Amino acid sequence: MGDAGLEAMKDRSQLNADAKPWLAVFDLSVTKNSPAGSCVLAEVLGLADEFDITVFSGAFDNDQTGRVRWVRVPLPNKPSFCAI
Q: Which of 31, 24, 21 lies closest to 6 in space, CA to CA?
């Protein structure tokens, strides 16, 4: 989803008084296999009925119900070392 799609979602939410509040979540890996990410995943799925949620992450285990949008953010697979 590009910038235009995100702007359209925000505009639609502001025009519709009955719209759910919009929530953006930023995390490296929102997956069941990640110790911290699994907690974030549980929170996101638990709040999905009350909020319009978009997750910005390199990996995301979606619940396949379409309640949460995922914007993939390309990240390196491993930590890297940079010497200057």
A: 24
